[in-house]
């Protein structure tokens, strides 16, 4: 009824006039209230209308749910009093001949009728339990500080340096001209007539457009991605692996590596003999895995990397974790991240052979996260794909079930926001693979922008083509700069008191171990924080440097670490390292 009144100006005018001209004799005659009414009677009609609208709006608004501590009796009493008051107001208005919004029977305005359908008590418990440290509380606080700085709040620093996430372009890396030109031409084909674009990129754009329905990037593709691009991916893999055959029908284009990883884990989410499936993950690990495992209600099985051997992987540790896990789950998957995130190690070929043997003997599917395969800096290290090694091993190991992942977000492209990736699925049962394809079909397809980016990754300019010189120059600049920063971070942090740092062999991160003094541990406990979280918060509030505590990735009990990227541009990274040095010296002095 009150909504009708709001929509009817003439009726609202009469109601407001009634309020202005009446003394409302039904109200209590306290001196304060009478004084208030006298002031109200002097109000112009327009002001009364505004107040009347406000009253009606408030009546229509959903009231906040009462807290659990509110007694039922108090709620009932308040409701009854409100209803009585409204009836009295209605009677006063009716006595003046005005239309009242309270003519209808008084409704029970109890909080129960206004409760939200969704509450923390009736949503998926797994969603509440999952955590993603890379964008956790410290990162949220960093965002708040950035807003405070914009408002002029004084800090001991003038900006936040975000070293928490591998977002290359956000940290100043420039996009490669070749990829951006290819995307421009495919998204706006009229640019094909422009002389500003090299002929080799125009040809690639025309080939991609010809593969699209209607010749447009705005159309859906096959659920697994454009066949044309999938064939390009297969050719890229075959060349990378020294001629090991690759079938495009085993390639699925995805929106970055993450959706592919999640789709495979979801496929394997089936209890075995009444116990949940177990997923073996390296510790430290990338939080995507722990978050997805929790989300799906699966069981995480931790195996520890050997920090004293440059984060190497030990077969005995794998076996220990596997045997212990069988008490609570059925282990089905072995996750390997190579090069490592957050640890920056590059697995040796011998390590990979041992991992494949272990997985085969224990009937585990290998998920090989190889998105950093182009990021190898250590001159004594080399990237080997799991596919290549298991094929070179020969015999039954060639039949090992393996899913590997790649992305345009890392490497030298660093196109995180475009969301392009692929996965290669090997040796799966045909029926199982058909089910996987069906599940992906329900998602329609990955973005065509991401598919173009993957095409650029796997089919770059070749010697003799117009774009080759600039492409090689820009690619080399990116990788050389990352190499330089990896060395800078390693040498600087290694000089800090209480730090133990492994060389950054690959990827985009450093994961040093730090000794936190007992006094600082007690200070952290007093704030109900883990010691490494306390250290990270202190660093952020003092210097503006945002890192991720090691507890977000997992670490050996009794040790403390943090992850920092090496992505800030060199001049910014030098500034960051100097601020870090000063902070750590003061921290140790304060808490030692």
UniProtKB/TrEMBL annotation:
Q: Is Iron-sulfur set as a keyword in this record?
A: no
GO molecular-function annotation terms? L-alanine:2-oxoglutarate aminotransferase activity; pyridoxal phosphate binding
Which keywords accompany this UniProt record? Aminotransferase, Pyridoxal phosphate, Transferase
Q: Which InterPro entries match?
A: ALAT1/2-like, Aminotransferase_I/II_large, PyrdxlP-dep_Trfase, PyrdxlP-dep_Trfase_major, PyrdxlP-dep_Trfase_small
- Going by the record, the broad EC class of this enzyme is transferase
Q: Which domain of life is it from?
A: Eukaryota
Residue span(s) of domain Aminotransferase class I/classII large: 198-571
Q: Which CDD domains match?
A: AAT_like
Q: What are the Low complexity biased-composition ranges?
A: 66-83
Query: Which parts of the sequence are annotated with region: Disordered?
Result: 60-83
Cofactor needs: pyridoxal 5'-phosphate
Biological process (GO), any one: L-alanine catabolic process
What Enzyme Commission number does this protein have? 2.6.1.2
Pathway the protein takes part in: Amino-acid degradation; L-alanine degradation via transaminase pathway; pyruvate from L-alanine: step 1/1
Q: Which reaction does it catalyse?
A: L-alanine + 2-oxoglutarate = pyruvate + L-glutamate
On subunit structure and binding partners, the annotation says: Homodimer.
Annotated family: Belongs to the class-I pyridoxal-phosphate-dependent aminotransferase family. Alanine aminotransferase subfamily.
In its UniProt entry, what is this protein called?
alanine transaminase
Q: Name the source organism.
A: Drosophila navojoa (Fruit fly)
């Amino acid at each position: 009824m009150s909504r009708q009144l709001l929509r009817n100006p003439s009726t609202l005018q009469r109601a407001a006039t009634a309020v202005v001209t009446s003394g409302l004799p039904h109200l209590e005659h306290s001196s304060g209230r009478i004084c208030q009414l006298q002031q109200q009677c002097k109000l112009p009609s327009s002001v009364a209308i505004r107040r009347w609208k406000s009253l009606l709006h408030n009546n229509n608004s959903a009231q906040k749910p009462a807290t659990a501590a509110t007694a039922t009796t108090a709620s009932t009493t308040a409701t009854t009093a409100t209803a009585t008051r409204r009836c009295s107001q209605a009677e006063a208005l009716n006595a003046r001949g005005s239309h009242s919004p309270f003519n209808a029977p008084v409704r029970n305005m109890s909080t129960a009728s206004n409760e939200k359908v969704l509450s923390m008590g009736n949503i998926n418990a797994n969603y509440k339990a999952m955590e993603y440290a890379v964008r956790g509380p410290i990162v949220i606080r960093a965002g708040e500080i950035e807003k405070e700085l914009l408002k002029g709040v004084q800090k001991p620093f003038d900006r936040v340096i975000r070293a928490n996430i591998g977002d290359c372009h956000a940290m100043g890396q420039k996009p490669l001209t070749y990829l951006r030109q290819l995307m421009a031409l495919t998204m706006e084909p009229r640019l094909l007539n422009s002389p500003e674009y090299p002929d080799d990129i125009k040809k690639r754009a025309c080939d991609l457009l010809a593969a699209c329905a209607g010749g447009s990037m705005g159309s859906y593709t096959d659920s697994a991605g454009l066949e044309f691009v999938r064939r390009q991916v297969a050719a890229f893999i075959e060349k990378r692996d020294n001629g090991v055959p690759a079938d495009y029908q085993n390639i699925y284009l995805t929106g970055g590596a993450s959706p592919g990883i999640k789709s495979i884990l979801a496929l394997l989410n089936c209890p075995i003999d009444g116990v949940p499936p177990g997923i073996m993950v390296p510790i430290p690990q990338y939080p995507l895995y722990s978050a997805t495992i929790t989300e799906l209600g699966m069981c995480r099985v931790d195996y520890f990397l050997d920090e004293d051997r440059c984060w190497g992987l030990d077969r005995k540790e794998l076996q220990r974790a596997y045997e212990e896990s069988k008490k609570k789950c059925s282990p089905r998957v072995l996750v390997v991240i190579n090069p490592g995130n957050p640890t920056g190690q590059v697995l040796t070929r011998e390590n990979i052979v041992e991992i494949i043997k272990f997985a085969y003997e224990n009937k585990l599917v290998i998920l090989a996260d190889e998105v950093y395969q182009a990021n190898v800096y250590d001159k004594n290290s080399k990237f080997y794909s799991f596919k290549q090694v298991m094929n070179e091993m020969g015999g039954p190991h060639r039949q090992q079930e393996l899913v590997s992942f790649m992305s345009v977000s890392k490497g030298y492209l660093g196109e995180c926001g475009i969301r392009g990736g692929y996965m290669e699925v090997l040796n799966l049962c045909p029926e199982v693979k058909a089910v996987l394809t069906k599940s992906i079909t329900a998602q329609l397809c990955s973005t065509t922008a991401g598919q173009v980016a993957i095409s650029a990754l796997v089919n770059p300019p070749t010697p003799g083509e117009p774009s080759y010189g600039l492409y090689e120059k820009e690619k080399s600049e990116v990788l050389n700069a990352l190499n330089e920063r990896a060395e800078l971070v390693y040498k600087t942090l290694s000089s800090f008191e209480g730090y133990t740092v492994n060389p950054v062999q690959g990827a985009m991160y450093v994961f040093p171990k730090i000794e936190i003094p007992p006094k600082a541990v007690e200070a952290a406990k007093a704030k109900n924080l883990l010691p490494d979280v306390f250290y990270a918060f202190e660093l952020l509030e003092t210097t503006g440097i945002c890192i991720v505590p090691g507890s977000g990735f997992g670490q050996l009990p009794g040790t403390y670490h943090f992850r920092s990227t090496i992505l800030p541009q060199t001049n910014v990274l030098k500034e960051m390292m100097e601020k870090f040095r000063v902070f750590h010296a003061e921290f140790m002095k304060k808490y030692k």
